[in-house]
Structures are given as C-alpha cells and as structure tokens.
Write a structure and sequence with these properties.
Helices cover about 45% and strands about 10% of the residues. The protein has helices at about 30-40, 50-55, 60-75, 95-110, 135-165, 185-205, 220-225, 245-260, 270-275, 290-305, 320-340, 340-345, 360-365; strands at about 20-25, 45-50, 85-90, 115, 120-125, 165-170, 210-215, 225-230, 280-285, 315-320. β1 (about 20-25), α1 and β2 (about 45-50) form a beta-alpha-beta unit. The protein starts with 20 loop residues before the first strand and ends with a helix.
C-alpha cells in the first residue's frame, strides 16, 4: 500500500536561480525527512547522509520510517529520485565524512548547504554519569555524536566550499545552547561546546564567503525526535529525596504534552517514564505519531528552508515563541546579575574605563 505524503505547509524560500545542493548529516532523522520533503518539492537537491542501520535494519522504528519515506515518497513522486541520493555517513568517522562530501560533489558537482543535524541526548545528573565505568563513557559518547560528529563533517566540507568561495553551514542546536537543564548536563555541555566552535568558525570562514548559522529550536525538537539514553538513577537523586526538577522526572509529561496519542501512564511498567528511571542504562527512541512529529517540526523546517542558502542568513536563529521567551528570560537574568555585581566587576580595574567608573591609583596597586 502506497503512503500518501503528508501535506507540506507553505514556506517562503530565498530567491535563487539554481536548485540548492544540500547534504544532511543525519538523513534518516525526523527533522531531515520533514525538511527534505520541503526541499524536494521545491526543486532542490538532497544528499542524505545515512548509517548502515538507517536503511538496512528496518526492524528499528526510525529506520523503518526512513525506508517507508524513501520507497513510498522519494521513489514515487515525480522528479524526486533524480534529485535525492544516499551517501554513507557516520559523523564520528572522519574518513566517512570526507568520502560522503566527495561523493555528494561527484554526484551533484558542488555542495551549497551542509545541514548538521545529528543528535542524541544523554539523561542523568552529573554524579550519575560517573557512578560506574560504563556510565562514565556516556559523556564521551555524547560528545562523539553531538560535538566531534559535527566537527568532522564541517572540516570535511570546508575545503570545497572555500575553493568555490561559497557555502552555508547550518547547525541544528537548541535553546540548551543558552540554558542549563538539570539532568541534561552532558547534553547541554555538548551544545555549548559546538556552538562555541561554530561562533569562532564563522569569523574564520567569512573571508571565503562561507556563511555559518546556528538554529536553536525548543528542547523537544532535538531531544524527543532522536535517541535518548539514560544513566542508572542514584537513590540520592530520586524525586522524593531530591527536589531538583531532573529531566528524567519530567520527560513523561513532556511526551504527553507533545503527543496526546501516546499514553505514558505511571501504572504502565513499560512506559518511557519508567524506563528512564531504570537502574540500568537504557536507550530509546520516543514513540511519537507521524502527525505529532510533523507538527513538532513544522516551525523549524520552515525556518531551515527559508534560511538555507540565503544571501545574508542570521548567525543565530531561535525558533518559536516559547524558545524566544526562554532565551530572553535567561539573558534578562544574566543582565540583572551583571548589574547587581557591577561594582565588584569594576573594582579590579586599575584604570578608569571609558564609561567613567572607578579610577585606579598607585595606592590600589600597592594593596593588590
């Protein structure tokens, strides 16, 4: 039975003469599938970076979704299959990144836009991530995917973009690049790290006309649509002992909020909420309905389609009212704390700043 492609919401694309050539670092992810529907319908060209398990192990939920999308949409819709190709890509392996970029350029002659969308979330308090030798490696696993995976594919794409004096790199991050979240310390750290690198990169590659954009949607986008791995819970961090709102304690309600079709009741021992509170390391893909995923990703997809290849794209784009409000609140808090301790900050200055605050003296220097 052939699946009818979901309705594609209207989207404003930047003006361009030729189709844009995209490489999606995690082509089987829900965000990549949803975005590629927009791009292929618009006439763009897409190289899907996929791991072997994304297309061969169809028993896995996400692999099954991608296989269905590929066989019943890409291969069926007129003109799509000629503008969509699979390239083997595991961002954690530099050799595969270089080969994927080379293959995409061989197929389509150039690479206009690199979309870095690989992600996984490690859930656990910082202390829980060091309680056993296995849980200690979870932090390294987190950075292998969310940091080094992006670094590798970016490094692989830069030479061709620099040679052509044109290119756009888009990193899908999240508001966790601004905000710390209890129980998501490793995940937030990986986001802050890759954003810091990309902020620096943007200055380095600007002379080569290579643009860099960080897109920050809500927490739900990257976390609930990708693999979640939880560390064993320590009794000291159980909700009845530790009042801190750890992520594993709220994820069930978060899933219920975004997907009313999925029942995550505490009485169900197999629910995600119970699995996230397990005394073992557990990895799951949250079960979201197709309709929920489309609704969840719609704003971000439209933003990505509009920004990709833009002549003057934003350096950082925050998606959605809730995300904007959260970041504004964080920046407000930082600003207020800065003002509260302004005199302490200025007290270390030995010379008067231009603003006319405290002036240092030889006596100050003697007292140091």
């Amino acid at each position: 039975m052939t699946r009818t492609a979901p309705a594609i919401p209207s989207c404003k694309f930047p003006s361009h003469v030729n189709p844009r050539i995209w490489l999606l670092s995690s082509g089987a992810s829900p965000i990549a599938i949803a975005l590629s529907r927009q791009l292929l319908a618009h006439g763009d060209v897409v190289a899907f970076g996929v791991q072997a398990s994304d297309t061969l192990d169809t028993s896995a939920g996400r692999a099954a979704d991608f296989t269905l999308f590929w066989t019943q949409e890409v291969l069926v819709n007129e003109g799509w299959k000629d503008r969509a190709k699979l390239v083997r890509l595991d961002g954690r392996k530099m050799g595969q990144c270089q080969a994927a970029v080379a293959e995409a350029i061989t197929l389509f002659r150039r690479l206009d836009i690199l979309f870095c969308c690989s992600s996984q979330a490690i859930v656990g308090a910082v202390e829980e991530l060091s309680s056993t030798s296995r849980s200690t490696t979870l932090i390294r696993d987190q950075f292998e995917t969310n940091y080094f995976g992006h670094v590798n594919i970016i490094k692989a794409a830069l030479p061709s973009m620099r040679e052509r004096h044109s290119g756009h790199i888009i990193l899908l991050s999240g508001i966790t690049g601004h905000l710390g979240t209890p129980g998501l310390g490793a995940y937030c750290a990986s986001q802050w790290a890759i954003e810091g690198l990309c902020d620096s990169l943007s200055y380095e590659v600007a002379p080569f006309n290579i643009k860099m954009t960080i897109v920050q949607p809500n927490l739900e986008i990257n976390v609930l649509t990708n693999q979640i791995t939880t560390a064993p819970q320590l009794p000291q961090y159980a909700p009845d002992i530790n009042p801190a709102p750890l992520f594993r304690d709220i994820i069930g309600g978060l899933l219920d909020r975004v997907d009313a079709t999925t029942a995550h009741e505490s009485s169900n021992e197999h629910s995600d909420q119970c699995r996230f509170s397990s005394d073992k390391i557990v990895s799951v893909y949250p079960e979201l309905s197709e309709e929920t995923k489309l609704q969840l990703l719609a704003e971000t997809v439209n933003a990505l389609a509009a920004i990709g290849g833009h002549d003057n794209p934003p350096a950082r784009h925050i998606v959605g009212h809730e995300a904007v409000a959260s970041v504004k609140e964080k920046l407000k808090t930082v600003s207020e704390e800065l003002e509260d301790f302004l005199e302490v900050s200025y007290s270390v200055d030995l010379q008067q700043p231009r603003g006319g605050h405290r002036q240092g003296s030889e006596e100050d220097a003697k007292n140091l």
